[in-house]
Amino acid sequence: MIDVHAPEHRVGGMRDFFVHLFTITIGLLIALGLENAAEAWHHHHQRLDAEATIREELTENRSELVKADAAIKSELDNMSAALTYLQARSQGKDASTAGISLGLRMTHLQNAGWRTAAATGAVQYMDYKAVQQFAESYDLQDVYNGLQNQTLNNYLNLNAHIAASKDPKSLTPQNAEAAMPDVRTTIAHLGAMRDLSHGLLQSYDEALK
């Protein structure tokens, strides 16, 4: 808060009055300038800190996504083998589950830095183009996470048919037939995750330039 004090001595004339008015005006302008400068400096550091946190977060997310992409390729092979097994059992044929390992690698793509920057208002001090690129990456992350959760539900359903079955021959043709749609849906979700991860990696690269 800026305080304006009355003159210590009685104003003797118009000259003294204007000198005093001029002094007050200059003082107010200096005080306002310093206040604005301090606020601008604070916003500058707030923006730098927020951008640094977001970039660090996206860099970590990118690294995790690369690992997840490699795991998805392996899981697609697993699902293909699982589908072959189920098709054989649905026809009453002997089939082995050897080599089939159901284990979805869950990837946690973080967004705490972005949410904090939005909540504190730091994003309004960032470059508009940079904010757009950050927002695109985090939006794609949300889609990826949602698709990942759907895929996890498919795995939980399949575990009852495949992973939990100690004897491959114990799976009845009816149960095998019932499990096949879950496998096909899982394959579709894994393929979508793989395709989406490629777009997300490109978005990360653009945001981190």
Notable characteristics:
single chain; 209 residues; mainly alpha; 4 helices; 0% strand; rod-shaped
What is the structure about, briefly put?
About 75% of the residues lie in helices and about 0% in strands. It is mainly α.
Description:
- The two termini are 41 Å apart.
- Helix 1 packs antiparallel against helix 2 and helix 3 runs antiparallel to helix 4.
- This protein has one domain.
- The longest helix has 77 residues.
- By secondary structure, the protein is mainly alpha-helical.
- It contains four helices and no strands.
Helix/strand/pairing class, anyone? mainly alpha
- Number of separate helices: 4
Distance between the termini: 41 Å
Q: If you compute it from the alpha carbons, what radius of gyration comes out, rounded to the nearest whole angstrom?
A: 31 Å
Helix content: over 70%
Provide the residue-averaged pLDDT.
82
| Strand content range | under 5%
Outline: rod-shaped
Q: Return residue spans where pLDDT drops below 50 for at least 5 consecutive residues.
A: none
Oligomer: single chain
The secondary-structure element order is HHHH
Largest sheet: none
Strand-helix topology:
Layout: H1 14-90, H2 112-120, H3 128-159, H4 173-207
Helix pairs in contact: 1-2, 1-4, 3-4
